[in-house]
Amino acid sequence: MGYELNDVSVKLNGVEILQSVSCTLQEGKWISVIGHTGAGKSTFAKVMKGLVPFYRGEYTHDRQPLPRDSKGNMKAVPQIGYVFQYPEQQLFATTVYRELAFALTVKGESPGKVEAAVKTVMEQLGLPADLLQEKPFQLSGGLKRLVAVASVLITEPELLILDEPTAGLDSVHRTALLKQLQVWQREKNRTVLLISHQLEEVADYSDEVMVFQKGHLLAHLEANELFLKCADLLEQAGLPLPEPVQLLRLIEGISGRTLTPASCREEDIMQLVRNVWQSRGLHHEG
Amino acid sequence: MLVFDQVDYYYRSRNPVLRQLSFEIRQGEFLSIIGGNGSGKSTLAKLMNGLLQPREGQVMLDHLNTRTPDDLGKIREQAGLVFQNPDNQFITTSVLDEVIFGLENLRVPRADMAGRANMALQAVHMEDYAEAMPHQLSGGQKQRVAVAAVVAMEPSIIIFDEATSMLDPQGRRDILELMNSLHRQGKTIIQITHHMDEILSSDRVLLLSRGEIAFDGSPSALFSSVSITEHQLSPPFAVRLHQALGLKAPLRADWKETVSALWATS
Known about the structure:
A: 286 residues; 6-stranded mixed sheet; B: 6-stranded mixed sheet; 9 helices; 10 strands
């Protein structure tokens, strides 16, 4: 079950910018998409949302093909939430409340239900209630981002696509956003597709990772498998290892030991390295 | 020298964004400005090159005042600003034209324009995209073009307002190396960033909190004397590593050398 692409290719101005991509986005997974600038990450995400036509291949949802016209455009856009790279591209209302209420209001939800949903989503993302009457365009870049995410999250999409959602956020808002999204995704068994350049965040939050390179899907692996066992794939894609994994490799190199942390998350790697460090007699003095 | 003298700023809602801000930035400094969302960082950047004027107080660039309309043209020649979102500054249909546009406004001789523009594109590794349409580039590529457009104008101060926030790791490294290279050439570099690992190579850090300066000093002094988590920020990996292993060695951006050296001496 889930969303599936089979041998999908996309051309722009005669150039193939996505080539023979096949993948399954399984329900309830946090899947991150990484790759060099121009590798095809955003194009892939737009194909999933039905915003970019593909000239070859098939797109299915729960094994049912999604209908397309003769030019490859989706006849109906799938019920997928999409947060674009720049939040100001999707903000339009005169107040934050109206921005958040818009999607549910046009769906015909009652004012009471809309108000309750707005309150819930504000709390979910740690946004203060006094922001509701502010103009979205006058907010700082980081707050605009949170409002943009909230305006999509409020629709409770089955698949939520986020294109670099944490760029421009300070670490408190960044962590709050990712943690709240993780709680939402796990509680409701939703799928998150996260495009990110922040490999440390990808290692900390993802179940699976897709690596793109020059329009190809180079790998689609579990996060632990990719970061702890397949460093060569990252190198091939022109990406560095996350810093905690670099530390792990350094300690392995200088100690001559093979180290196996519980996961690729920084917390688990740091715990293992601390133990090795102390066993060497380099005790914690802090 | 860029001088802020008791600067207040507020938007229409009149909630103060910056309060009684006073500091100086010397020619050739590499300054990082950090702070949580809404702390006033981007407002500060716009005040620096006269895009905004102070409600109270003054912003002076040498003898030029951002509140004096006749000075604004010269101030913007001297202080180039690279925005968070490159889409906000694109107006032409090709990458090369985009870089040349600023030079036309500065009345650079036509014979020099293409050369300066191409050098700037080379500096950000975008020379192969000179004929491409800016709006068809990826986010990271657009940002590199935006940096090239400012670099081509050869300002003495370049303000990077979260210019690396949309770039991939290689793109970030490229822009950081570019900042360091421009700094070595004598430019004043001012970067606003949320990436704490990016501030380790700067000379000086200003921490903004609720429109006021909460810290002004070196990066190592910042991490040893201020709990930056109270300012919605988290320490970079090098600092987290120092804390996790209890390292007493001086803080360096290249933590690998520190770890290797300590291991070898144990």
